[in-house]
Design a protein that fits this description.
The protein has 3 helices and 4 strands. With 118 residues, it is α/β, with parallel strands linked by helices.
Length: 118
């Protein structure tokens, strides 16, 4: 029903590159070009999706800019033919309350928008 996607691009020494534990009861995907970060995410339960955008990896500004495409077109990074009704981006440095997400998704009004509290 729901795929949770997170990720980050950039060099391994960038302190901003973090990952938290994958969420139970959901398929969680982590998109990255960083071997160190991918290894950490995999150990924390994420499925790794490799992506190698064209940017200057030495420049953290460029890495942040490239990640904007990931954040705004999250569904395009999932495997072709995926079965998820909902796809949700989650910042790699934050945790969400999954019970609040489920409550929102199961609400009777499918056209409402909400900010889910952390």
């Amino acid at each position: 029903m729901l795929a949770i996607v997170s990720g980050a691009f950039g060099k391994g020494k960038n302190q901003a590159l973090m990952v938290t534990r994958a969420y139970k009861n959901f398929d969680c995907f982590f998109v990255t070009d960083n071997l160190i970060l991918a290894d950490k995410a995999h150990k924390l339960g994420w499925h790794i999706i490799w992506s190698f955008p064209d940017y200057n990896a030495d420049d953290s500004y460029n890495a942040a800019f490239v990640s904007k495409k990931l954040k705004t077109n999250t569904q395009n990074y999932l495997p072709p033919g995926h079965h998820y009704k909902y796809v949700m981006w989650v910042d790699s440095k934050q945790r969400i309350r999954t019970e609040a997400v489920l409550k929102f998704l199961l609400a009777s009004n499918p056209f409402c928008a909400a900010a889910v509290p952390r």
